[in-house]
């Protein structure tokens, strides 16, 4: 049974435009993968704690020396990493807040990017430890940022995903959503068409 991990990071949960794009993607993925399973990680409804010195120290402490609290913290991280490892494909709803990614998504990143677990340092530089699989980023933005210096999200997400071993990355952009109803409708139609093309070509492959 194939599995899609759907990550939502909109503060509006299911009502966010990026979440709705992710839902559309998931529906098309199911059509291309009958009998498949979707695991939803909603970071608005179930936020991952932000990284603290206590949590970081738990990751660094040798397993046999961890306190009960540290084992609990690491178990939370392991759950998130396990969802990544079990997924055949990953879809991330990606809204833009103040030119960056949501802080809840950054907290999730801080709990899955762990030295010795999802990446390691070698004499040739860092090496991702996750087996590559397709990642789809459904980016919803109020303005027009793609291809400009203000688009800090795209390079950041590509760098992070590649750092842990995920290089097969595809973006779907829905931009200009705050520039009027006509602009929003047009950009959403384009995003929907791109999702549908991905479903018809890549997802069924």
From TrEMBL:
EC number assigned by the record: 1.6.5.-, 1.7.1.17
Reaction(s) the record says it catalyses: N,N-dimethyl-1,4-phenylenediamine + anthranilate + 2 NAD(+) = 2-(4-dimethylaminophenyl)diazenylbenzoate + 2 NADH + 2 H(+); 2 a quinone + NADH + H(+) = 2 a 1,4-benzosemiquinone + NAD(+)
Cofactor binding, note field: Binds 1 FMN per subunit.
Domain Flavodoxin-like fold: 3-197
MF term (GO), any: oxidoreductase activity, acting on NAD(P)H, quinone or similar compound as acceptor
TM segment ranges: none
Binding site residues for FMN: 10, 96-99
Oligomer status and interactors: Homodimer.
Homology family: Belongs to the azoreductase type 1 family.
PANTHER family in UniProt: FMN-DEPENDENT NADH-AZOREDUCTASE 1, FMN-DEPENDENT NADH:QUINONE OXIDOREDUCTASE
Name used for this protein in its record: FMN dependent NADH:quinone oxidoreductase
Species whose genome carries this gene: Elongatibacter sediminis
Lineage of producing organism: Bacteria, Pseudomonadati, Pseudomonadota, Gammaproteobacteria, Chromatiales
């Amino acid at each position: 049974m194939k599995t899609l991990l759907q990550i939502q990071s909109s503060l509006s949960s299911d009502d966010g435009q990026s979440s709705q794009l992710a839902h559309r993607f998931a529906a098309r993925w199911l059509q291309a993968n009958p009998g498949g399973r979707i695991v939803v990680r909603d970071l608005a409804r179930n936020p991952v704690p932000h990284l603290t010195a206590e949590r970081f120290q738990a990751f660094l402490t040798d397993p046999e020396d961890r306190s009960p609290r540290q084992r609990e913290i690491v178990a939370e991280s392991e759950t998130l990493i396990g969802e990544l490892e079990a997924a055949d494909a990953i879809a991330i709803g990606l809204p833009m807040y103040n030119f960056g990614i949501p802080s809840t998504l950054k907290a999730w990143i801080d709990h899955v990017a762990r030295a010795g677990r999802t990446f390691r340092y070698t004499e040739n530089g860092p090496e991702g430890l996750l087996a590559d699989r397709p990642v789809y980023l459904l980016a919803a933005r109020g303005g027009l940022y793609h291809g400009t210096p203000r688009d800090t999200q795209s390079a950041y997400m590509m760098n992070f995903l590649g750092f842990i071993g995920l290089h097969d990355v595809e973006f779907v952009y829905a931009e200009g959503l705050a520039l009027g109803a006509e602009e929003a409708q047009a950009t959403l139609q384009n995003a929907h068409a791109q999702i549908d093309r991905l479903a018809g070509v890549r997802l069924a492959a």
